[in-house]
Amino acid sequence: MTRDTQPQLYSLSRRKMLAGLGAVGLASAGAGLGTSAYFSDEESFENNTLTAGTLDLRVRYEASYDSGGTVENMADEAMGTQDGSPAGMFYDLEDVKPGDSGHVEFCFDIVDNPAYMWACGDLSQAENGITEPESAVDDTPELGELGESIVARLAYCEEDDGEFVEGEEIVSGSLVDVIAAISSGAALDGDGVAGLAPGEQSPYDDVVEGEPDYITGACVCLFWEIPYEVGNEIQSDSLTMSFEFHALQARHNDGTTNPCAPTVTTRTGEGFAKVEEFSTGQETSFARGRFGDNGPSGSWEVAVGPDVGSADTANYVWTPGATVPFSYTYDGSGNASFTLDGVNVGSGIPAPSGKLAITTKADEATVSVANLALDLDGVPATLSGPDAISASNDGSGREVTYLVFDTDAADVANAFTISGDVTVDVQGDYSGSDEGVAFDISVE
Questions:
Q1: pLDDT of residue 3
Q2: Is residue 14 one of the residues assigned to a domain?
Q3: How many helices (H) and strands (E) does the chain have?
Q4: CB-based contacts of 224: which residues, under 8 Å, 6+ apart?
Q5: Which of 249, 277, 296 delimits the end of a domain?
Q6: How far is the C-alpha of 315 from the C-alpha of 380, rounded, in Å?
Q7: Fewest C-beta in 10 Å: which of 248, 274, 320, 400?
Q8: pTM > 0.90: yes or no
Q9: What is the total count of domains within the chain?
């Protein structure tokens, strides 16, 4: 394929590891078609106070590429390993074309406790410009088509006398479909049985005697192919995919803990979150629930938008002391909505680029936000820190406090939702100031 521009290199968002119950082993890999990629190690150990011992995960891998009948092993050796240090680039294909195919096999060695295995992955792709022949069939200059054009399947597999024996299929479709299916975490079965829900899968518990002994189970293979029918629409396109493997000690666990779920740190402070936490000291968009005039018309109580002047607003009648639900959702395409106790407003906003925050403001009142939850692109995040914030004042001025979600640009690039409960209790001497009693959702 010819290229109009140099391919872009991508830094994939790293799933933050959840230190779940029991010892945890983690290994990750990267692969690229049309761009650079590498296999890197993020293995870790966690001792558990309930057991003596550790858990060490090693991943053995083999990768091949078939182009025009020539099969090339992409690993440095016939069988690569990853165990505590980077294993080097293993799958970097710069000129794939219709008819090409390949596979990657991952096998797992665990020392020294039976473990539940999980897999998760990410994929990003780029157009890298439009060539002259591509322009005749490609009308999406900002979106690469390579991932959707690759037919792929993820399946259990094993090697028997040098030949691959494919087992039960885990998922199939386009490469985008396959990676999306495991992006939130897929529980692997030690016996190679597909279609099991978390908690139904068998742990990896087959003991292999050696120096030292280790535990293993079913291997996993990714097979991919670009059909001959694919045309010029993929010219110059590139993609990068990554895989992450987690082993969670089976003892004291039931297999339901998903270590692929993102973990987001939260913390609280005094003052305005945008001033104290955001790099520019400003928010790019906001949502607000304020006491307003507490009437059915007049001053608004619910708002969302880039700023106060251009926000979409609505009225809401508060019941002091009552706890009501709220949610804020960004759809990943420039639109946000805010719902307070069934009252909904929506607005276009700039693309988020960093932290999220809740600010509570109280003047002769108490504002409490509790039971906070964060969903990142359909995956509930584990909050490492507080999930509630409140402000209370009975005197001059007002108290302002905040809770910040320590997200980054990659975390909020796609859809996300903040939800929780809010309680506003206004004292009898509250002056009725529109901004005296409120809570804000701020987006960096």
A1: 32
A2: no
A3: 4, 29
A4: 101, 102, 103, 150, 151, 152, 175
A5: 249
A6: 30
A7: 320
A8: no
A9: 2
